[in-house]
Amino acid sequence: MRPEFLPFARPSISDEDVQAVTDVLRSGWITTGVKCAELEAGFTDRLGTTSAVATTSATAAMHLALVALGIGPGDEVITPSMTWVSTVNMIVRLGATPVFVDVDRETLMATAAGIDSAVTDRTRAIIPVDYAGAAIDMAGIRAIGVARGIPVIEDAAHAIGTRRSDGEEVGQVGTAIFSLHPIKTITSGEGGVLVTDDEAFGENIRRLRFHGLGVDAWERGQQGRSPQAEVLEPGFKYNLPDMNAALGLSQFHRLDEFIDRRRDLALRYRERLASIPGLTPLGDAETTGRHAWHLFIVRVDPETAGVDRADFMAALKSKNIGTGIHFRAIHTQKWFVDHPDRWRGTDLANTEWNSDRICSLPLFPDMSDADVDDVVAAIRDAVPSSSGVPA
Ligand SMILES: Cc1ncc(COP(=O)(O)O)c(C=O)c1O
To answer: Most buried residue, 92, 273, 312, 379, by CB count within 10 Å?
Structure first.
């Protein structure tokens, strides 16, 4: 057994990251300022898009996007049930109705056809999710948005640095949100970024991020702008402090290095797990060019593997190996079960099948190849179907 616990995720923090945050702490300005602006410029420069607005989380970014779109009671928003509950909470809190579509059984991503069939005359937004670092079929989904006049906000919380099969990087086109939470590919402690190629929409998000004022605190304090900025509409307090932005910016410089290491680890898992019956990694989406490998997910099928997911996770834990579930389907969670009038859903068979079986294995850039081999050895001990199957 491993002497040290192997978590399923851990941020890779370098001396440069520590120095970047320390410099901000000593600078005399620790809330939103020049570092936040530099982080935003990093995103617009890399993606060649018009606007990037950094927020305290991707959830906050999605909240602002939905408010900016005017989503409210009577409106429907199409999204998968197989996602993190935070975005759906925002839809519900605005009084709108989430409409859950099923996902592809192998990629956990919604399909353009499934989304198209869920559109009604009350649909006001579509939120597709790039799952685990793969790229969803945005060409197909954008076509629906254009044909039906429905805005699309891509939930790219998992997909900083992901590329589509045509080479386009996620966030280059349209509007997307990224997460800088500590388990994500790069982190600012907590944080999110909304990117958009719609300049007016970006300006609206920027205003809503900071009380709905015409200028933010940094502009007023440092740029000599009027201290008496007016509230143009009631806004929120979702601005990303420079302490966080400095960490995010320092990490941003290592994004491609992180993704390369994650890919190597993921391919090692794939190769070593391929022969175990009943333990199936997610499949490849043909719409993905470069996978960011935010998560490495397997499905534990009790009938074939001879062990159910709970016992599988407990067995790994007993060997000092952490795992996670990303995610339990939203419509199966208590509040949604208790409030069937607050959401709608199509047939969710693939979502439910996966919700009962998915398990995320440890994956982070500072893991060694030997760490992967430890996990695989623990899995082989935990899964009866692997006995007699050559390693
Ligand atoms: C698919 C998805 N969307 C949105 C979020 C929200 O991100 P944040 O924690 O930055 O608010 C997450 C976070 O895990 C996520 O997985």
So the answer is: 379
